[in-house]
Design goal:
Blueprint: H1 3-7, H2 9-23, H3 28-46, H4 70-85, H5 88-105, H6 108-119, H7 125-135, H8 142-157, H9 162-175, H10 186-198, H11 213-242, H12 260-284, H13 304-307, H14 309-328, H15 334-346, H16 349-368, H17 370-385, H18 389-403, H19 410-426, H20 432-445, H21 456-464, H22 472-500
Length: 515
C-alpha cells in the first residue's frame, strides 16, 4: 500500500468496511424490490398515526398513505406499466446511449479522446474532467449519461484507473450539482419556491432568478479542488490497490495512433457537429425563437430547447458518428450502424431491469409521504431549537443533505421545506437568498451516496464495465469521501463567503429585507 494510503489507513479501513458491507447487499434490482416491500409495510404501520404536521403545499394535514389497501394495490397494478415507461431517467438514458453508442463504436469518440489526451497533461486530466462535469448541469441530465461514462473511458485511455474517472465526474455532475457559473433551469425553479415562501412574511418581496449565481460560480472552484485532491491522492491509489481493472476489456479505446482515414473522418465529422451546434445557436438566439418558452426564456424547464436536450444529444453524436464510421471504414453499410446501436442497448439490459424496480419503489415511496413527513419533522425540529443564525444555516445544510437521501428531487424537496425555512430565517434577519444558498449546498453533497437517486444504478453499470464485481458498496465507498469533504469544506466556504459579505448573486442580500 502506498504512502498516501498509509497516511489514510483509518479512512481506508473505514471505506473498505463500507464497501464489503454494501456489496453483501443483494443485486440493486432486488434491493429496490425489498425497499418497495418495506415502504408498503411502513405505510400501513404509520398511516393511523397523526403526526400533526401541515403540508405547506396544500395547507392540509399531512398523513402517511397506507399503500396496502385494496384500492391502492389495484391502483399500483393498473399503473405499473406507465410508472415504468414514464420513469424519467429511462428514456433519457436509452435515447442518449443510442447516439453515443454509434459515436463510440464507430470510433468517433475514441478518436476525439486521442486528440484530447495528446495535448492535455495527465496531471490536469482530473480538474478538466470535473470542470466539464460541472458545466454539464446546464444541459439537464446530460452529464449522467454522457460525461460520467466518458470519464471512465478517458482515464482508461490515459493509463489511469477508469473508476477514478467515473468517481471524479460523478462528483462533479451530481455532488457538485449546485456549483455552476453558467445559469441553468434549476436557478429560476428554486427561486420560484423561495419567493413564494418569502411572501408568507412579505407579500411584495421579489427575488432575482440568479440570486445565487456568484456563489454557485465560485463554488465550482471549491468542488474542482476537492474532487481533484480526493481523486488523485485518495480514491485512485485505493482503487489501484483494492479494485484492479478486469483484463478482458476488448471494446475500450486504446491509445493507438490514428490512421489517415480516421484523421480525415474525425475532422469532417467534427466540422458537421460544429455546424449543427452553430445552427442550433442561431435558431435559439432570437427572442421569438420557437425554442424559447412563451415568456422568451431559454433556460426554463418550459422552453422547448431544455425539453429537447436529450434528442439533441442523440443527433449531435449519432450523425457525426455515422459520418466518421463510413469515412474511416469502420462502417461498411447501414447494418453496421444498427449493430452499434444494438450493442449500446445490450449494455443497458441490466440497467433496464434495475430501472423497473427502482421506478416502482420511488413511485410508492413518494405516494406514501414517508419522505415528505421526514423532511417536515426535521425542519420543524430545527426550528424549535432556536439556534444562533450561523448555526441554523449550518443546520439547514446538514438537514438538507440528510433529507436528500430520502427525497431525491431538488425542487420537490425545496417546495416542501422552503415554507418553513425561508420565513423562519427571515424572522432572524436572514435573507431568502442566503437560505436558498444553504439549501443548495446540502442538496448537492449527498446525491452521490444514495442508491435512491435515479441515476445511481446507472453509474454502477458504468463501473461494472471495467470491474465486473462492482456493487452498491463499491460505489458508495468511492463517493463517500467526496460527500464528507464537500459537506465540510463547502459549508465552511459558505460561512466565509457570508462573513466577507461577498454578493451571492444578482440583487441578493444576506439580511432581510433583501431588496
Amino acid at each position: 500500500m502506498n504512502d498516501n494510503l498509509q497516511k489514510n489507513s483509518l479512512l481506508d479501513r473505514f471505506l473498505t468496511a463500507i464497501e464489503k458491507a454494501g456489496n453483501k447487499l443483494p443485486d440493486p434490482a432486488i434491493l429496490f424490490l425489498f425497499l418497495l416491500l418495506l415502504t408498503w409495510f411502513l405505510s400501513a404501520l404509520l398511516a393511523p398515526v397523526d403526526f400533526g404536521e401541515l403540508d405547506p403545499r396544500t395547507g392540509e394535514k399531512l398523513y402517511i398513505q397506507n399503500l396496502l389497501t385494496g384500492e391502492k394495490i389495484a391502483d399500483f397494478l393498473s399503473r405499473m406499466i406507465s410508472v415504468f415507461i414514464n420513469f424519467p431517467p429511462l428514456g433519457v438514458v436509452l435515447l442518449a446511449m443510442l447516439g453515443v453508442g454509434v459515436a463510440e463504436y464507430s470510433g468517433f469518440i475514441p478518436a476525439g479522446l486521442k486528440y484530447l489526451l495528446g495535448f492535455t497533461p495527465k496531471s490536469l486530466l482530473t480538474p478538466i474532467l470535473v470542470l466539464v462535469a460541472i458545466v454539464s448541469h446546464t444541459a439537464a441530465d446530460a452529464g449522467y449519461v454522457l460525461v460520467i461514462p466518458l470519464g471512465g473511458v478517458i482515464f482508461y485511455a490515459a493509463g489511469r484507473h477508469p473508476l477514478a474517472g467515473i468517481a471524479a465526474t460523478f462528483a462533479g455532475v451530481s455532488g457538485g450539482f449546485s456549483a455552476n457559473f453558467i445559469p441553468s433551469a434549476i436557478d429560476p425553479l428554486l427561486q420560484s419556491f423561495t419567493q413564494s415562501a418569502a411572501r408568507i412574511i412579505d407579500p411584495d418581496i421579489n427575488l432575482n432568478p440568479l440570486n445565487n449565481i456568484y456563489f454557485t460560480g465560485l463554488s465550482s472552484i471549491v468542488v474542482i479542488g476537492v474532487a481533484w485532491y480526493l481523486t488523485d491522492r485518495i480514491i485512485e491509489p485505493r482503487l489501484n490497490s483494492n479494485n484492479p481493472v478486469d483484463k478482458d476489456l476488448n471494446d475500450i479505446p486504446k491509445m493507438d495512433l490514428l490512421e489517415k482515414s480516421e484523421k480525415i473522418g474525425f475532422k469532417i465529422a467534427s466540422l458537421v457537429m460544429i455546424l449543427g451546434l452553430t445552427g442550433l445557436f442561431f435558431w435559439a438566439y432570437p427572442v421569438g425563437s420557437s425554442l424559447r418558452d412563451p415568456e422568451g426564456e431559454i433556460t426554463s424547464f418550459a422552453a422547448p430547447l431544455m425539453q429537447s436536450i436529450v434528442p439533441l444529444i442523440f443527433l449531435v453524436f449519432w450523425i457525426p458518428g455515422i459520418i466518421f464510421g463510413f469515412i474511416s471504414g469502420s462502417y461498411k453499410n447501414s447494418k453496421d450502424v444498427i449493430a452499434s446501436m444494438s450493442k449500446a442497448m445490450g449494455g443497458m439490459a441490466h440497467y433496464i431491469v434495475m430501472a423497473f424496480f427502482c421506478a416502482l419503489f420511488i413511485d410508492a415511496f413518494t405516494q406514501s409521504n414517508i419522505g415528505s413527513m421526514t423532511a417536515l419533522k426535521g425542519a420543524v425540529f430545527l426550528q424549535s431549537l432556536q439556534l444562533p443564525s450561523q448555526v441554523t444555516v449550518v443546520g439547514i445544510v446538514f438537514l438538507s443533505a440528510f433529507v436528500n437521501l430520502l427525497v431525491g428531487s431538488a425542487s420537490a424537496k425545496w417546495a416542501l421545506i422552503s415554507p418553513i425555512f425561508v420565513p423562519m430565517l427571515m424572522q432572524l434577519d436572514i435573507s431568502p437568498d442566503l437560505t436558498q444558498a444553504a439549501y443548495r449546498v446540502g442538496d448537492s453533497v449527498s446525491n452521490i451516496i444514495t442508491p435512491l437517486m435515479p441515476y445511481f444504478p446507472l453509474v454502477v453499470i458504468f463501473c461494472q464495465r471495467y470491474v465486473k464485481n462492482t456493487g452498491i458498496g463499491t460505489l458508495v465507498s468511492l463517493m463517500l469521501p467526496y460527500t464528507l469533504f464537500l459537506l465540510l469544506i463547502w459549508t465552511v466556504f459558505l460561512l466565509i463567503y457570508w462573513t466577507l459579505g461577498l454578493p451571492l448573486g444578482l440583487q441578493s442580500s444576506y439580511t432581510y429585507p433583501a431588496i
